[in-house]
Specification:
Low-confidence stretches: none
Structural class: alpha/beta
CATH class of the largest domain: Alpha Beta
Largest sheet: 7 strands, mixed
Distance between the termini: 55 Å
CATH topology of the largest domain: Aspartate Aminotransferase, domain 2
Helix content: 25-40%
Mean pLDDT: 96
Strand order of the largest sheet: 4-10-9-8-7-5-6
Number of domains: 2
CATH architecture of the largest domain: 3-Layer(aba) Sandwich
Length: about 450
């Protein structure tokens, strides 16, 4: 393939185009799944569809229904389903050398050098990369080990509303009691601070930031703050599962200052927000903040499992075997990742994500419905928080809107601390025409849901 194809050529032309949802084949496939697979399966419980093929920002189920995809595997398929430019390199690599532990290979070193060149702020040109396992949680586990090894300390600071994964260390940093309660005790010496969330807290942005930073300063610097040996502070630059919560100006920079003051590493979780999702390579770039380390996953491999921790050279104090993993040498995903970055660059998808995200948020803010309490996000990381007439979280309304959207061929997902946030995370290759069509359906669904409740 001589050049990456334009985004307009990636999709099913007729999506959305649906008949019965879910169709009979999807229902049969779901029954087979129920009979054979773990009851821990999540997504089909709310979206009982069996998929067959994806192209760009569109996906087809086993009954031939075609959808516009507005959640992209939860920020995984940033350059689209089955992007041919990515698929070509992955297929080629699978026929030569799929796996090589951490022996040096050209795909591995090409990707490391590329990640270093696009890393945020002062990490660019002065970083190291460690691969571990295939999931974002593995990268978070690596960052925990890195911070503890470097500082010699054990305490960890994270935030309310955080989600960092579901392995033991990552789960310890996460703040979702609903899922954690059955698996405690997890790691000791983890404390959570407030994350600035003005809409939920009912305070001005400046006050929300001050509260959050005061919490962190207490944990890091107060003799009675219950954190005698902090190894690091872990933060999402925009909370994802927590409801696409964008922190107000001053929070990330204030957090950076506090970590500098107390000589504690700042670890920024870019697993959902990275790889161009927010209109910059990393959400950290929006806040002019350089992390000491950042975790990378999801969109980096565009559907091929891969994760990494990128960190300052000074933190590279562990020795051989300090962090390992069987799939730290999955060259197929590394080739896919490099091609994904090249595709984003070739089609100026950072600017495209910025412009399309502004359009989507504008449409949601203009919808004629009291259900929409606040619309948030950066780039194609968009959230709309739903409330009832008394301002209380309206999770059932989000479920109804998503159901209406699915029945008309638009797939969206939810989130938020009370499951009352509609999340729209389409591939960066979604076209303006597709976004317009999809938002017509989304806005109609919101208005129809509101009408039923009046």
């Amino acid at each position: 393939m001589t050049a990456p194809p334009p985004i307009e050529e990636l999709h099913f032309d007729d999506a959305p185009n649906v008949d019965e949802v879910p169709g009979p084949r999807s229902r049969r496939l779901r029954e087979r799944q129920r009979a054979a697979e773990s009851s821990a399966v999540l997504y089909p419980t709310e979206m009982p569809i069996g998929f067959r093929e994806g192209k760009g920002a569109t996906i087809e189920d086993v009954d031939g229904n075609r959808y516009l995809d507005f959640f992209a595997g939860i920020s995984v398929l940033n350059v689209g389903h089955a992007n041919p430019y990515v698929a070509e390199a992955a297929a080629e690599q699978s026929h030569t050398l799929p796996h090589s532990l951490d022996f040096p290979t050209e795909p591995r070193l090409d990707l490391i050098e590329k990640l270093e060149s696009i890393a945020p702020g002062g990490l660019a040109g002065a970083s190291r990369v460690v691969f571990g396992g295939p999931t974002g949680s593995d990268a978070v586990e690596g960052s925990i080990k890195l911070a503890k090894q470097y500082t010699g300390n054990r305490g960890m600071v994270a935030f309310y509303g955080a989600f960092h994964g579901e392995t033991s260390g990552a789960f310890s940093l996460s703040a979702d009691g609903k899922y954690k309660r059955d698996y405690t005790p997890l790691l000791a010496e983890v404390e959570h601070a407030q994350y600035p969330y003005p809409f939920r807290q009912g305070v001005p942005p400046e006050e929300a930031v001050d509260r959050a930073l005061d919490d962190v300063q207490t944990l890091l610097g107060d003799r009675y703050g219950a954190m005698p040996n902090p190894a690091g502070v872990w933060v999402e630059p925009i909370q994802g599962e927590g409801g696409v919560v964008v922190p107000p100006e001053g929070f990330m920079s204030g957090l950076r200052d506090l970590c500098d003051d107390y000589d504690v590493p700042l670890i920024v979780d870019e697993i959902q927000t990275g790889m161009g999702r927010t209109g910059e390579w990393w959400a950290s770039d929006h806040f002019d903040v350089t992390p000491d380390a950042m975790t990378v996953g999801k969109g980096i491999g565009n559907g091929h499992p891969l994760s990494a921790t990128v960190y300052r050279e000074e933190l590279d104090t562990w020795g051989p075997g300090g962090h390992t993993g069987t799939f730290r040498g999955y060259n197929v995903a590394m080739r896919a990742a490099l091609r994904s970055i090249e595709y984003i660059e070739a089609h100026d998808l950072l600017d495209h994500a910025t412009e399309l995200g502004e359009y989507i948020r504008g449409r949601l803010r203009d919808v004629d419905s009291p259900l929409v309490g606040e619309v948030r996000g950066l780039g194609l990381f968009v959230g709309a928080e739903f409330v009832d007439r008394n301002g209380r979280p309206a999770s059932d309304a989000v479920s109804e809107v998503r159901q209406r959207c699915m029945e008309r061929g638009v797939l969206a997902w939810g989130g938020g601390r009370d499951d009352n946030v509609l999340r729209l995370l389409p591939p960066l290759v979604m076209t303006r025409e597709q976004a317009e069509t999809g938002l017509d359906i989304v806005c109609d669904a919101i208005e129809a849901t509101a009408d039923e409740r009046i």
